[in-house]
């Protein structure tokens, strides 16, 4: 009955205002009484103020009327917020103050001269549309400041129905954006959510017995009863779901506003969008990720992941219509997932802040639960702990965002990102969520196609993700028993580094208090002591196996020491490119440069020596790699007819600082350099060319892509054979670090 009651409240207030105007002798011409703001929108809650404006033409006296108009309303029990201005003053106030302008866009005639109201509204809307491109950046800033101050309706522990992100104020701002004629919105979805949220506010006022927009924890039970819902949890889910939908519409609309504002001028006529292909079946159009013409989601189950990953990494909008189509038409992913699907999903999770809006779109269109059915367990679930600033689902996404900044610190970024997504998947039941979440995480990781040992690692991280933080803050780190407790559950340095990163990401996503300098210091101290204990137990680490096989040497390579043989074999999910040439310093750099120039995306590679010959094998996700063209590219580089240096330098642009580390424990026969940087075309070529320029020979290379990160390990020796000296290794690492740091966009 809330909508009916709002209508009745508005009708009663209108009648009282009209009667007061008439009783005060209000004229029929030159003066009008207007309802503005929420009253103008007929959205009065039980304890709302009446926002009214007495407006008049210049030269028309209203002092006497203004002196008597408000008293009957006060006497009638109404709380009023009133103003008196002439038309020009009103237009000036709207031009100077965005809040005034927003309220006046909802102006509604109550009494007096309707022509004054019509003229004022016409001029207000004309000015709003005319000045929109100038005023909207200010509105954007004001809206963001409010969001930062109040938080999100869908996630904060004490939500504000009006001012929070996704609240009623955002619904009003969306109407103002539509009034500019620059963008449009899904009106039906917004109106349904806005009206339902108004119903909640009406019940909140009635329950509190006063005007309030903040839902205190003790109010949820009564709200549930008034809304006809089962319990407080259901009431929270209902209200936060409304906020989530309004927020999704708001985020989408503001991205489109930003795209319009970025244009130098408004097109005078509609024109076909320019499509830029960014991945198979996926294109960028007007700042949004869409599907290419002819894309068939039903025949390409990886298309949804490809589109989502591109949108998140580029931090652009995944067009809601595109996401809805993908959700409706996409074929289910095969079980277990193919490697490319897993890579795309990790890229999505590790995309940083771009993940937030894309995941929201996937949730709103039902795609998230199709990819991860277990997501329904935590969707909209409130946290029981007050230390958490978000609901469980949003906390999980924030943990992924924080973990994305830490992938340089771990050996398996893909395992870290999936563990970050699943670390709280066991919440919502009576069993400890770490215990309940472990078997779920193992099942999900296996479905995603992780190897058995990787499934174990994901499961262990979920099971023990609170171990470091809880132990560090409740036990004596100097006591050997404390270290023994951690080492009993975390048995390898690799698992420990992953757990440290997950602990930091989880804590940062919870709140600033959860990762204070003191708490972080305790966790890191415990981790260092545990690592020392694990290394002391170790019997020694074996060097990685290159996985080389003996290949037949083609006749042209036997005849010509500068020839490079290239073969391409199609695989299930791409191509395998094999090269063989007489071993010399720089041959790997030449092959890597040719692949980069040809824009062949490399997922993994390995290289080794076969007697006097050098072999390299490159795994690519692309199917149509032309061996003849690639062979010609390599030959042109070897002969000096093509200098790829400038082209490679332009390709290799990064968003994070690189990591270049010497691993002295990894080999006794060679020096091991580990390079981590963003996965970009040309990285391997850049590194190999730099090493060749330092007269350092790459004896073995192990190149892999883990989510958005390239992890490249090079076993190097002096050209005259032998491991590098400590000083020489440090100089090589420093040179590579400086070279890659120069590619970071700051």
Structural description of this entry:
Helix 10 crosses helix 12 and helix 27 (587-597) packs antiparallel against helix 30. By secondary structure, the chain is an alpha+beta fold. The strands form three sheets. The chain has an eight-stranded antiparallel β-sheet. A four-stranded mixed β-sheet has the order 3-2-1-4, with helices on both faces. It contains 31 helices and 16 strands. It is 51% helix and 14% strand. The protein starts with a helix and ends in a 5-residue tail after the last helix. This is [protein-PII] uridylyltransferase. It comes from Nocardioides zeae. Its EC number is 2.7.7.59. Keywords: Nucleotidyltransferase, Transferase.
Could you give a short description of this structure?
Helix content is 51%, strand content 14%. The chain is α+β, with helices and mostly antiparallel strands.
In which order are the strands of the major sheet placed? 9-10-12-11-15-16-14-13
Structural class: alpha+beta
Report, as a whole number of angstroms, the end-to-end distance: 55 Å
Overall pLDDT level: 89
Tell me the strand percentage band. 5-15%
Q: Rg from C-alpha positions?
A: 32 Å
Total count of helical runs of at least 4 residues: 31
Biggest sheet layout:
8 strands, antiparallel
Keywords: Nucleotidyltransferase, Transferase
EC number: 2.7.7.59
Protein name: [protein-PII] uridylyltransferase
Enzyme class: transferase
State the main characteristics:
single chain, 746 residues, four-stranded mixed sheet, 31 helices, EC 2.7.7.59
């Amino acid at each position: 009955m809330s909508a009916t009651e709002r209508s009745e409240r508005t009708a009663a207030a209108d009648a009282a205002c009209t009667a007061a105007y008439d009783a005060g002798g209000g004229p029929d011409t030159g003066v009008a009484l207007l309802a503005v703001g929420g009253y103008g929108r007929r959205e009065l809650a039980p304890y709302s103020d009446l926002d009214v404006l007495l407006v008049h033409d210049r030269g028309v006296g209203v002092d006497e009327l203004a002196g008597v108009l408000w008293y009957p309303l006060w006497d009638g029990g109404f709380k009023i917020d009133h103003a008196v201005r002439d038309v020009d003053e009103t237009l000036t106030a709207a031009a100077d103050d965005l809040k005034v302008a927003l309220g006046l866009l909802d102006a509604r005639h109550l009494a007096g001269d309707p022509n004054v109201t019509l003229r004022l509204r016409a001029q207000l809307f004309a000015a709003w549309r005319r000045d929109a491109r100038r005023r909207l950046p200010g509105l954007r800033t004001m809206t963001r400041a409010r969001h930062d101050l109040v938080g999100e309706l869908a996630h904060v522990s004490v939500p504000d129905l009006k001012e929070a992100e996704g609240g009623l104020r955002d619904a009003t701002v969306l109407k103002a954006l539509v009034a500019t004629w620059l963008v449009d919105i899904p009106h039906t979805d917004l109106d349904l959510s806005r009206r339902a949220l108004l119903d909640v506010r009406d019940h909140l006022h009635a329950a509190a017995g006063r005007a309030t927009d903040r839902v205190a924890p003790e109010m949820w039970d009564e709200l549930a009863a008034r809304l006809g819902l089962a319990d407080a949890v259901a009431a929270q889910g209902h209200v936060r779901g409304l906020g989530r939908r309004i927020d999704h519409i708001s985020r989408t609309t503001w991205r489109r506003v930003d795209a319009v504002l970025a244009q130098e001028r408004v097109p005078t006529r509609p024109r076909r969008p320019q499509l830029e292909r960014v991945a198979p079946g996926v294109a960028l159009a007007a700042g949004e990720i869409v599907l290419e013409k002819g894309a068939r989601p039903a025949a390409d189950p990886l298309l949804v992941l490809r589109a989502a990953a591109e949108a998140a990494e580029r931090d652009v909008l995944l067009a809601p219509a595109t996401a809805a189509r993908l959700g409706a038409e996409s074929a289910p992913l095969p079980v277990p997932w193919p490697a490319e699907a897993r890579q795309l999903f990790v890229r999505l999770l590790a995309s940083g802040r771009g993940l937030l809006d894309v995941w929201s779109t996937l949730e709103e269109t039902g795609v998230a639960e199709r990819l991860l059915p277990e997501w329904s367990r935590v969707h909209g679930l409130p946290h029981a702990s007050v230390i958490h600033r978000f609901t469980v689902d949003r906390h999980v996404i924030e943990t992924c965002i924080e973990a994305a900044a830490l992938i340089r610190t771990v050996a398996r970024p893909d395992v870290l990102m999936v563990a970050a997504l699943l670390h709280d998947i066991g919440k919502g039941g009576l069993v400890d969520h770490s215990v309940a979440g472990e078997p779920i995480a193992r099942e999900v990781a296996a479905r995603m196609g992780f190897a058995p040992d990787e499934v174990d690692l994901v499961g262990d991280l979920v099971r023990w993700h609170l171990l470091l933080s809880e132990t560090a803050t409740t036990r004596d780190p100097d006591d050997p028993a404390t270290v023994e407790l951690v080492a009993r559950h975390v048995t390898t340095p690799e698992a420990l580094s992953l757990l440290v990163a997950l602990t930091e990401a989880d804590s940062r996503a919870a709140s600033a208090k959860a990762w204070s300098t003191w708490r972080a210091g305790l966790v890191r101290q415990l981790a260092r002591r545990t690592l020392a204990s694990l290394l002391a137990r170790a019997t020694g680490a074996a060097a990685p196996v290159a996985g080389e096989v003996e290949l037949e040497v083609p006749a042209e390579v036997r005849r010509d020491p500068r020839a490079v043989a290239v073969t391409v074999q199609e695989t299930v999910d791409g191509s395998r490119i094999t090269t063989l040439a007489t071993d010399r310093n720089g041959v790997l750099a030449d092959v890597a440069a040719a692949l980069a120039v040809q824009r062949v995306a490399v997922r993994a590679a390995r290289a080794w020596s076969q007697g006097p010959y050098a072999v390299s094998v490159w795994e690519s996700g692309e199917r149509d790699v032309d061996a003849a063209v690639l062979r010609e590219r390599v030959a042109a580089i070897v002969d000096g007819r093509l200098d790829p240096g400038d082209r490679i330098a332009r390709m290799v642009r990064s968003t994070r600082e690189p990591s270049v580390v010497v691993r002295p424990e990894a080999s006794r026969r060679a020096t091991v350099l580990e390079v981590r940087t963003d996965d970009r075309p040309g990285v391997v070529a850049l590194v190999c060319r730099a090493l060749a320029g330092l007269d350092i020979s790459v004896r073995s290379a192990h190149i892999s892509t883990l989510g958005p990160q390239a992890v490249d390990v090079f076993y190097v020796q002096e050209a005259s054979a032998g491991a590098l000296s400590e000083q020489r290794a440090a100089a090589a690492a420093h040179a590579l670090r400086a070279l890659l740091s120069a590619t970071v966009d700051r």
